[in-house]
Amino acid sequence: MVNEEQMKSAFNALYTGAYEGDSQEAEQSDGNVSIRIQWSDLEAVDEEVAQYTLKKPSAVKECAEDVLSNSIQKIESNLHVRFHDLPDSRSLRVSDLRASHLGELVSISGKVVDAEKVQPFLKKGAFNCQRCGTLTYLPQTYGDIREPVECPGCETSGPFGVIQRHSDIIDFKCVILKTTNTNLEDPPVLPIYLLHDLVETVGEGDEVSVAGSYNIHPMSRQKETELNTYVEAVDIEVEEYAEVDSVNAEDLTAYIYEGVNKMMETETSFGASRDDVVEWIGEKYGVRETEIENRIDELVDEDGEDLSQQAGQLIK
Question: CATH number, domain at 228?
Answer without folding.
Answer: 2.40.50.140
